[in-house]
Design brief:
Blueprint (H helix, E strand, L loop, with lengths): L1 H21 L4 H13 L1 H10 L5 H4 L2
Length: 61
Amino acid sequence: MGTIIYIIGVVLAVLAVLDILKKPISTIGKVISVVLVLITSWVGLVVYYLYAKNHLTEWFK
């Protein structure tokens, strides 16, 4: 069961990083976003998918 949860987390993290890299924001904004999502693990993924995904372009114009 733990392995399945780990794999889901890795897949969601990869999808989040790919989504961030596609956004039309500055390179430093992409680096900051990716690092925060990866360092904060599940909390970062939840915050990204529920809130930050739609606001990154506003924050890093």
